[in-house]
Amino acid sequence: MAWIILVLSGMLEAVWAAALGASHGFKRKIPTLIFAVSMALSMAGLAWAMTSLPTGTAYAVWVGIGATLTVIWGFVKGYESPTTARVLLLVLLVSSVIGLKVVS
Length: 104
Description:
This protein is 82% helix and 0% strand. It contains four helices and no strands. The longest helix has 23 residues, at 55-77.
């Protein structure tokens, strides 16, 4: 169950990161609200998952999921270009996260 909560929390990390960018320095209300709620839920889920998972592994998985999804969102929205190097590095990041899960 902790792994499921951790994955969902990592997904929420991508939500709050995207909402933070869309808030334009907290000047837009709806993205700011989405940022605050998703960040609180993401942190709460990470904290809960850390009660039964090693801290380093849980944090690395959480960040890896959030970072990967945030970059993919940037590709989809056209904010970033999906170059070969970026895609390969994302694959390496995801592989590393999976590797941490396997050896835990």
